[in-house]
Structures are given as structure tokens and as C-alpha cells.
Amino acid sequence: MNDQVMIVDDDPSIRETVEIVLSAFGYSVSVAENGRVCLEKLKDEFKGLILMDVMMPEMDGWNTIVEIKERGLHGDNIICMLTAVNDPGPKMEKLSEYIIDYIRKPFTSEELIEKVKEYLRYVKK
Amino acid sequence: MKVLVVDDNPKALLIAKARLVKEGIDVICAGGGKQCLEIAREERPDLILLDIDMPDLSGFEVCNRLKEEETLCMVPIIFLTAADDNGNRIRGLDLGAVDYVTKPFDAFELRARVRAALRTKKLQDQLTNFNQKLEKKVEERTSRVQQLLQQKNAFVNQLSHDLKTPLTPLVALLPLIAKRTEDSEAKRMLNLAIDSVNYMRNLTETILQLARLNSSHSQLKPEKIDIAFEIQNIINALSSLFSERKISPVINTDTPLLVECDEILIKELLHNLISNAIKYTNSGGVVTVRGFCNNNQIQISISDTGIGMTDEQIDHAFEEFYKADDSRNDRSSTGLGLSICRKIIEKSEGKIQIESPGLGKGTTVGFSIPRCIENEK
Q1: A32 CA to chain B: closest CA distance, Å?
Q2: Which segments in chain A show pLDDT lower than 50?
Q3: Any chain B CB within 8 A of the CB of A17?
Q4: If one looks up domain A5-120 in CATH, what number appears?
Q5: What's the rounded Cα separation, in Å, for the pair B322 and B328?
Q6: Residue B377, pLDDT score
Q7: Are A69 and A98 in contact (CB under 8 A)?
Q8: Which site among B163, B168, B220, B268 would you substitute to test the A interface, given the most A Cβ atoms closer than 10 Å to its Cβ?
Q9: C-beta of residue B301 within 8 angstroms of C-beta of residue B270
Q10: B333-365 burial string, b = 16+ CB within 10 Å, else e?
Q11: What is the pLDDT at residue B81?
């Protein structure tokens, strides 16, 4: 079975936390430590929900989405941002057609599962 | 020191000059009113000796014009008057002259009066100088303080954001472990840790909010909102808390109560104040929210039948991190809620105050903000 959720975050503790929580609830998780790896995984035909950190070195979450868009890798994937800021502001608005929502750090496992469950429904099988 | 002597009589000029040069004073002469103005603008004398009767411009007129010019208005003027001319002396002093000397001059008197005027001028110059230096210093300090405040806000902002990432594994994973643990001792430890983590999460969020409100860059998005409607919404949202604590909400407001404020901030304010009222009220109590319009001000009060406050507690209640003694170790309180409320009210050009008849007798928090005047279309 293909992975359903991809977590893109430069912080290993966040990647592992998301992986542990989602696995515990029966989801299969793919892990990317930066935007570049995310793009590669998309090329390798990942299909599902992408949880994307905003603040990452080199290529941040927004730029990664711009790249996804420009390389035509968006497909039927759903993108949800992970952010430490309360209001992601104008950058989020600019890319709003590619982003379904954002999850604020720190999040509880319930908050994460609830959103993942909801947004995976939109991913076309 | 430089003195400008103005007289249409060349003889009088010569005499005055001769008397003053002896004092070691730099003397410049002008033969009439117009020339006086030109030279004064160019030379900026420290004192002007001014004749009254001159054919082109009278001394009074010259005096008036000097007082109107920013760079010359502070130059002291001594009028040269005739001995019996009391009326002109008074008029001259009223026009802003510092003194007068009667013609023909007594050499000693002339020099003494000039010396006195120059002494005053010197002191005045020093004072102006000190003042300017002081103003500059105050400006420098003020801008430094503002800069430091901004740095503090930026620091607090950054810190709170940076705390959020390491908090995530704790917030997400500790409850999962607690759920899986059968060991009751371990469960107790974990629950303690979870409480702490939740408190830290709450604190980070609240500090961030305060930093945002403190920041001069924070942008308000004022829009027209009905406070009465928001009150109802928040009471509804808190209904489970009300019933859990067996406290009855009472709403008594006019509708609508329109204000022009940032919606998020107003919701935050009402939520803070109403949940505070619940928190400090014992089971069976009542929380009453009143709202009405009074002279273009919307006045809201939130009263409870709770534990009340002492005057001293009220005095400190709006301070950041202030907690009343009995809630010092209360993990559900950050000590920042009311200071956030006050900041929100200040940003909305309103006022907030707390009243309590004393411990055990309930508390009323009241605030007022300007009413939004509806444009008839």
C-alpha cells in the first residue's frame, strides 16, 4: 500500500512525532527532511496528504509549494501547513488554492488525527 | 558681544559708539529702521539700541518686525527715548523691549544698562543652549528606549515561537503514553508532566499574544461588530463550563451594541473576562453580563458572585504576571489575562476597571469603548 501522508519538516523531533502518532492510528507515513526530498517523493508518485512545515532552511514551505506548482507535481495531493505562527498571513493567502488548512504547533495527537482524517477524504484514490 | 545701535542722527550714533567701544563691546551702527532690519538679519547682534523717531520706520515698527522674525525675536532691545517721554517708554516696554535709556546719554548709565542687558542675554543664551542639549538627549534616550522595547518584543516573539517546536512532541506524545500505561504510579507521573506541558503551552501562547499587542507593528483590523451578539456567542461557547461548574449565566444587554474594533481581539477580551468570572465563582453562583449604550460609549459589565477582590488586588490586577496570593500556584492562570484585556481595551480607545465590595462579595469588571456611529445610507 502506498503511503498516505507525507511529513515535510527539517526538525527530526517533529517528523518522528508525526510519524509515531499517525502510525499509532494506522496511517502510513512518508518522511521528508526538506523541500527537495518532498519534490523527489512527489516525482516518485507519492499521492496523499502533505503536512508541510513553513520555516525550513534553504527552501521554506511556501517556496516548496511554488516549486511543486511550477514543476506540475501538485496532482491530486492535498497540502496542509504546519506552523509555529498564529497567523500565516499574506503568503498563505497567495497560495491558498494549493493549501487546504494549517495546523498550529504545538498540536495534540487528537488535533493532528482529526485534520488528517478529514483531509485524506479529499485525496482521490 | 555685539551691539547694534540704530539712530537717524549720525552724531548720536558716534557718541553711543564711543561710549560702548570703551567697554570692549563690538559696535555696529545703522542709520535708520530699514537698515537696522537688514543688518540685524545679517549680523545677529546680542543687543539692539533702538531710537524711536526715525523717518523711514519708527523704532516701534522696527521692534514689531524684529519680534515677528524667528531668528531675531529673542534679541533684547533697549529703546533710546527723550527724557520727558514717559508714554513712549511704557509703550516700548510693552512692545517687548527690555529697557530704555534717555537721551542725551549719561555715559555711566548707558554702559550699566547695556551691561545688564547683555548679562541677561548671555544667561538666556546659555539657558537656550542647555535646553536644546537636554531636548536632544531626551530624544536620543526616548528613541533608544523605543528601540530596546522593540528588541524586547522581537525577542519574546522569537522565543515563544522557538518554544513551540520542542513543545510539540511533548504535547502530542505524553497523553498517548499515558493512555497506554497500565501502571498507576507511572500514570500519575505522566499526568503531572502533561499538566506542566499544557501550562507551558498556554503560557507560550499568552506571552506571544501580549508581545503582539505590545508591538507597535501590530495591525488592527477594525470592523463593525455587534458586541451583544458576540457576548451571546461566547456564553454559548462556554455553556458546558457553566453547567459543569453549576453557574448560571445571565445576559442583560441592549441590541445591537455596535462598535468598530478588531473582531478577534474583542472576542478574546470577552472570552477572557467571562471565563475569569466563571473561574472565580463558586458552584451555584451567577455571572451577569450587562451591556448598554451611554453617550456614544458602549458600556459592558461582567459581574460574578464569586470570591471577590481586595483593594490591593484590584490595584495590581492589570500588571503583567500578577496573581493574587491564593492563585499563585494555580496552573490554569498565567497572570497575563487581565493585562491582555487592558491592552486590547487601550488599542480600542476604551477604558476598563474592576470593582469589588471585598473578599467573598463578588467582582464586577466594566469596560467602555466608543460606539460605532452608523452611517445612514
Answers
A1: 17
A2: none
A3: yes
A4: 3.40.50.2300
A5: 9
A6: 40
A7: yes
A8: B168
A9: no
A10: bbbbbbbbbbbbbeebebebebebeeeeebbbb
A11: 86
- At residue B105, the pLDDT reads 83
| Residue with the three cell numbers 516548496 | A64
- Closest Cβ–Cβ partner in A17, A85, A86 for B168: A17
Which pLDDT belongs to residue B376?
Answer: 43
For residues A1 and A33, the answer to whether their CB atoms sit within 8 Å is: no
* The amino acid at B266: I
Of B51, B46, B6, the residue nearest B26 (C-alpha)? B46
List Cα–Cα distances, A104 to A51, A65, B167, B200, in angstroms: 11, 18, 12, 15
Query: What pLDDT is stored for residue B191 in this prediction?
Result: 93
- List chain A domain ranges: 5-120
Q: Parallel, antiparallel, or unpaired for β B248-253 and B286-294?
A: parallel
Identify the residue among A7, A20, A102, A109 best suited for mutation to test binding to B, counting B beta carbons within 10 A and taking the highest: A109
Q: Which residue of A has its CA nearest to B160?
A: A84
| Inter-chain CB proximity A13 and B169 less than 8 Å | yes
Does A108 contact B166 at a Cβ distance shorter than 8 Å? no
Give the DSSP letter string of A76-123: T-EEEEEESSS--THHHHHTTTTEEEEEESS--HHHHHHHHHHHHTTS
Which residues of chain B register pLDDT less than 70? 216-219, 325-329, 331, 374-377
Q: Which residues contact B337 (CB under 8 A, 6 or more apart)?
A: B206, B272, B276
CA distance B113 to B101: 8
Cα–Cα distance between B45 and B62 in angstroms, integer?
A: 15
- At B38 the pLDDT is 94
Nearest Cα of chain A lies from the Cα of B175 at a distance, in angstroms, of: 8
**Which set of grid coordinates corresponds to residue B295?**
453617550
Provide the pLDDT for residue A95. Answer: 86
CA atoms within 13 A on the CB side of A79: 26
